[in-house]
Design a protein that fits this description.
Elements: E1 5-10, E2 15-20, E3 28-33, E4 41-45, E5 51-55, H1 61-72, E6 79-84, E7 94-95, H2 98-106, H3 115-128, E8 134-138, H4 148-151, H5 157-161, H6 172-185, E9 193-199, E10 203-209, E11 212-216, H7 239-247, H8 251-260, H9 263-268, H10 274-282, H11 286-306, E12 315-319, H12 320-325, H13 327-335, H14 346-351, E13 358-359, E14 367-370, H15 375-404
The structure holds adenosine monophosphate.
Adenosine monophosphate binds next to helix 10 and helix 12.
Length: 405
C-alpha cells in the first residue's frame, strides 16, 4: 500500500474503523459502540499502540465518524473503504456513486440488518468528507465467480429470475485474503485448489480454484452452512412448518431462534464462545463436548462437500478467532477428513504461536496452514486499487477524447 486508507464497518449501533497504511504494526483501529445511548464511547488503539478510550455520550453515527476522523485527520487518509455485507450481483469493489449507493439499497432485502447500517455510515462520511474518494467493498463479491450449479437452489426458476433467490456467500474479503496469502506462502500464488475455513463467531468455508471462489457454505443469507456461535447453519427447511404447526411459532420467532439462539449456544445451552466450551468440556460438561463435536463434524462435512468444486485439493487454510487459535479444533476437524490424505503434525499444530501464520502438516499430502485473516487490510487494498483505476481512467480520458476529435 502506498497510501493510507480509512476502513469503516458500520453496524446498527457500532462502527469499527482502522487506518491502514504500509506497515501492519502501525495500524490505528478502534470501535465506536453503544451509539445513540448515554454510554456511547470509542475504544481502540492509537499511534504507537497506545490505548484509547473516549466517552461520546448520545453520539449518533455521524457524530462518532466526525470524532474518529478529527482524531485521524493529521494522518491524511487518502480514501475511505466501506465494508458492505451484501452487494447483490455486484462482482467487485466499486467507487461510491449515487448509482452504486442505490444498488446497495436495492440489496437491502437480502441483508436487512446489515445494509441499512452501512448506508447510514456511507451517507454520513459522504456528507462529512465529500472530497475523499469512497469505495464499497462487498462480502459477497468474491463469490460472484461461483458457477450456476453452485449458486442456484433447486427451487422454482422464477424465484431466481424475478426475486434474486440464489446463493451469494459471505466472508468474501477473508476468504480472498487468506487464499491469496496462503497460496503465496505455499509457493503457488493463486494457483491450484484450496479450501478455506473461516471460523469465528460467524463461520464459513470456501473452495477456491486458481484464485477464484467456486463454492462456499453460506447462501442467500449468512445462516446457511456450518455451525456458528449462535447460528444453526444447515437445518431441514421444514423446521419452519414443523415449529409453526406444533408450537405455534411465527416466522420472526423461528428466524430469531435460528440466528441468535442456536449454533454452539443452542447445543451447549451454555455459551457461543468456543474458549468457554473447550474449558467446560475439559471439566466434564457433556453438552459443551457435544457442541464441539457437532461443530467439527459439520465443518469437516462442509469441506468434504466443497471439495467437489475442485479438480484437486492442494491444501486447507484455517483462519478466524477459532481457526487461528485453537489447535484442538483444527486437529479434531482434520480427523473427520480421513479420505483426503491430510497428514497433520501434532507438534507443529500444538506449537504454532497464537496469531501467527504457519504450516502444520508433515509435508506429505495436501498442505495445512494457519493464516490469520486481515479483512481490513484487504478492504484497504481493494479501495486503493479502485481509486487508482478511477484516477488512471480520468487522466487517460482527455487523450482518448483528443484522439476521437
Ligand atoms: P472472531 O469472531 O473471529 O473474533 O472469533 C471469535 C471466536 O474465537 C470465539 O468463539 C472465541 O472463543 C474463539 N477463540 C478465540 N481464541 C480462542 C482459543 N484460544 N481457543 C478456542 N477458541 C478461541
Amino acid at each position: 500500500m502506498s497510501t493510507s486508507v480509512l476502513v469503516i464497518n458500520c453496524g446498527s449501533s457500532s462502527i469499527k474503523y482502522a487506518l491502514v497504511s504500509e506497515r501492519r504494526e502501525d495500524r490505528i483501529f478502534g470501535l465506536a459502540e453503544n451509539l445513540g445511548s448515554a454510554d456511547a464511547r470509542i475504544k481502540g488503539v492509537t499511534t504507537g499502540g497506545a490505548a484509547l478510550e473516549l466517552s461520546i455520550p448520545h453520539a449518533d453515527h455521524e457524530k462518532a465518524l466526525e470524532t474518529i476522523l478529527e482524531r485521524l485527520a493529521h494522518h491524511n487518509p487518502q480514501a475511505i473503504g466501506h465494508r458492505v455485507v451484501h452487494g447483490g450481483t455486484l462482482t467487485k469493489a466499486e467507487l461510491l456513486t449515487p448509482e452504486i449507493i442505490e444498488r446497495i439499497r436495492e440489496a437491502t432485502p437480502l441483508a436487512p440488518l446489515h445494509n441499512p447500517a452501512h448506508l447510514v455510515g456511507i451517507e454520513a462520511t459522504m456528507r462529512l468528507f465529500p472530497e475523499l474518494p469512497q469505495v464499497a467493498v462487498f462480502d459477497t463479491a468474491f463469490h460472484q465467480t461461483m458457477p450456476s450449479h453452485a449458486y442456484r437452489y433447486a427451487l422454482p426458476k422464477f424465484l431466481y429470475t424475478q426475486h434474486n433467490v440464489r446463493r451469494y456467500g459471505f466472508h468474501g474479503t477473508s476468504h480472498a485474503y487468506v487464499s491469496e496469502r496462503g497460496s503465496m506462502l505455499a509457493g503457488s500464488f493463486k494457483q491450484g485448489g484450496w479450501l478455506t475455513a473461516h471460523l469465528g463467531n460467524g463461520s464459513s468455508t470456501c473452495a477456491i480454484w486458481n484464485g477464484q471462489s467456486v463454492d462456499t457454505s453460506m447462501g442467500l443469507t449468512p445462516l446457511e452452512g456450518v455451525v456458528m456461535g449462535t447460528r444453526s447453519g444447515d437445518v431441514d427447511p421444514s423446521i419452519h412448518s414443523f415449529l409453526a404447526s406444533n408450537l405455534g411459532w411465527d416466522i420472526y420467532k423461528i428466524d430469531k431462534m435460528l440466528n441468535s439462539q442456536s449454533g454452539l449456544l443452542g447445543l451447549s445451552d451454555l455459551s457461543n464462545d468456543m474458549r468457554t466450551l473447550i474449558e467446560a468440556s475439559e471439566q466434564g460438561n457433556e453438552d459443551a463436548a457435544l457442541a464441539i463435536e457437532v461443530f467439527c463434524y459439520r465443518l469437516a462435512k462442509s469441506l468434504a462437500g466443497l471439495s467437489c468444486g475442485l479438480p484437486r485439493i492442494d491444501g486447507l487454510f484455517f483462519t478466524g478467532g477459532i481457526g487461528e487459535n485453537s489447535a484442538y479444533i483444527r486437529e479434531k476437524t482434520v480427523s473427520y477428513l480421513p479420505h483426503f490424505g491430510f497428514n497433520l503434525s501434532k507438534e507443529l499444530n500444538d506449537n504454532l504461536k497464537r496469531g501467527t501464520e504457519g504450516r502444520i502438516d508433515h509435508g506429505t499430502g495436501p498442505q495445512i496452514w494457519v493464516v490469520p485473516t486481515d479483512e481490513e487490510g484487504r478492504i484497504a487494498k481493494e479501495t486503493e486499487h479502485v481509486v487508482d483505476e478511477v484516477t488512471a481512467s480520468a487522466t487517460k480520458k482527455p487523450d482518448a477524447e483528443a484522439a476521437i476529435a
